[in-house]
Amino acid sequence: MSTDSAINHIVILGAGQSAASAAKTLRNGGYTGDLTLIGEENHLPYERPPLSKALLTGTATEESVCLLTQSFVEQHDIDFRRNVSARSIDREAQHVILSDGAQVPYDRLLIATGSHPRHLGNDLDSKSNVFYLRTIEDARAIRSALVPGGTLLALGAGWIGLEVAATARRLGMDVVVVEMADRACGRSLPNEVGEALIKLHEGHGTRVLLATQVSTIEGTDKVERVTLNNGEVLDISAVIVGIGAVANDDLARAAELEVVDTGGIVVDRFTRTSDPHIYASGDVAVVKVGANLVRFESWANAQDQGVAAAKNMLGQDISYEPNTWFWSDQYDINIQMIGRITDPGATVHTRPGENGRFTNFYVTNGRIDGVITFGQPRDMSFARKLIQKGYEVTGDELVTTENLRKLI
Ligand SMILES: Cc1cc2nc3c(=O)[nH]c(=O)nc-3n(C[C@H](O)[C@H](O)[C@H](O)COP(=O)(O)OP(=O)(O)OC[C@H]3O[C@@H](n4cnc5c(N)ncnc54)[C@H](O)[C@@H]3O)c2cc1C
Questions:
Q1: Which residues of 106-122 are buried (b: 16+ CB within 10 A; e: fewer)?
Q2: Domains and CATH numbers, the chain
Q3: Strand pairing partners for 247?
Q4: Are 115 and 284 in contact, with CB atoms under 8 Å apart?
């Protein structure tokens, strides 16, 4: 990796997925200047997907979800400041001011501050058995509230709510999912796949109530009972709220970088913000996709955009194409998706599997725009290759060909 001699100090704000990926790329690529990593959590960088899955069931540990080890940090001379947050960015002086009063100068700054759960903003927020999930501490608290025989109320049928619901069922709880919209994962999934997800949950004994809301709650410190707007009364022991995430873009807003009203820092295809010395990546960044500004919230995007940002901070012009791959695990079903899957004009080619499993190809003008595998992860590796080579769909071969490999 070539380095620009004028770049002697790179500062990364946030110490999560994207930050760790950028820091590793910088050091593994030969950057020898100062590298400061600032994280408000009191942890080494760790990955979040297991928080709603393996860490909750106990099949992963807090150590196993770590992205950078202490020895990597030391061996690679990373000035890692944990448990301290960035308070402001002085763009003119090119330094960051931290919550402990320190001023950290930068030649290049990467903002990788991620996002935080959207809150309900009502009485439920103050109850001790109502949880949001973003951090290891959240996962610990939720884990101790998932008690066999209890009832979990999941507010929101999005990824987090459904994953925790599946985990709670596995741990022996009764689960009710309450979603105000008329479908599951409405922002990210086509309706037919949302329906398959609901069926999956119902098949495991979870009740999924769409177009439903909580009207009233009872309980002082804890919520003990809720009444729904359909009149139903539920006795509950814990609540998980998963109603979306909000970009941690306050620093950028205060520093008058370009941000969008709905949240997120606008970056160009070189991961640069409106200030040429400042970059952004991961959940906090917004990129242009066609005519739209899109904020991706996924492991793969955080990872790859962090790599691109690191290289671009060193003067390589890496044009970043968002990595759209996403996965989720619920019960014994692995769901993966890639590409554009919500285009209303696409034709859906469904490859059925056993026990409700399937693979959907979304085809527009003979090209595969996107793919969802529902319990058939093997299909994803073939699907990726078909997309990469621009495979032209001529008939129903995606459905009828016994082995997709033959089409590659
Ligand atoms: C429970 C859960 C399950 C998930 N499951 C999946 C999955 O199955 N598949 C998938 O593709 N994606 C999944 N995701 C999404 C994925 O984990 C995120 O997209 C990814 O973590 C984003 O990485 P990031 O680096 O942008 O942000 P983060 O990993 O959130 O890191 C940002 C860090 O910056 C810190 N920070 C914020 N502000 C400041 C400040 N001012 N100063 C210092 N530090 C600050 C934050 O505390 C945080 O530690 C899941 C997310 C969650 C929460």
A1: bbbbbbbbbbebeebee
A2: 9-116+245-313 (3.50.50.60), 119-241 (3.50.50.60), 333-407 (3.30.390.30)
A3: 115
A4: yes
Beta strands, E only, 200-315: 207-209, 214-218, 225-228, 233-235, 238-241, 245-247, 265-266, 278-280, 285-289, 292-294
Measured in Å, residue 88 CA sits from the centre of ligand 1 at 20
Where do we find the tokens 């002085």?
90
Pocket test for ligand 1, best of 17, 257, 284, 320 (most atoms within 8 A of CB): 17
From 299, 301, 320, 330, give the residue whose CB has the most ligand 1 atoms within 8 Å, as the site to mutate. Answer: 299
Each residue's pLDDT tens digit, 224-255: 999 999 999 999 999 999 999 999 999 999 99
The per-residue pLDDT for 3 is 40
pLDDT digits (tens, 9 = 90+) for 21-73: 999 999 999 999 999 999 999 999 999 999 999 999 999 999 999 999 999 99
Give the residues surrounding ligand 1 with Cβ less than 6 Å away.
Answer: 13-19, 38-41, 48-49, 51-52, 85-86, 112-114, 133-134, 160, 248, 251, 282-284, 297-300, 302, 326-328
* 261's tokens: 């009203």
> Which segments of 108-266 are extended strands (E)?
108-111, 115-117, 130-131, 151-155, 174-178, 207-209, 214-218, 225-228, 233-235, 238-241, 245-247, 265-266
d(CA 336, CA 327): 4
Token readout for 113 is: 């501050």
Confidence grade of residue 104 (pLDDT, cut at 50, 70, 90): very high
* Token output for 283: 């959940």
Contact of 25 with 306, CB cutoff 8 Å: yes
